């Protein structure tokens, strides 16, 4: 468990990169970002969540079931 905590402490919470590599001075300017991937399953979940944004305690709504249309 301690090894996991040590590892997680060296991973960037923003991009998941290995901080000893990505935060090194020699890494500055050496990365290029590409367009993001769109998760269509997340799209479906977020569209459904918008329908419930005025629900009583909407943050308590968990486990949004998703299935592929047939």
What would you say this structure looks like, in words?
This protein is 33% helix and 0% strand. It has 70 residues and is mainly alpha-helical. It has one domain (2-60). The longest helix has 12 residues, at 40-51. The protein is elongated. The model has no long low-confidence stretch (mean pLDDT 96).
- The whole-angstrom Rg is 19 Å
Distance between the termini: 43 Å
Low-pLDDT parts are none
The number of helical segments is 3
What order do the helices and strands come in, and which of them pair?
Blueprint: H1 2-8, H2 19-22, H3 40-51
The gist of it:
This protein is mainly α and about 70 residues long. It is built from three helices and no strands. The protein is about 35% helix and about 0% strand.
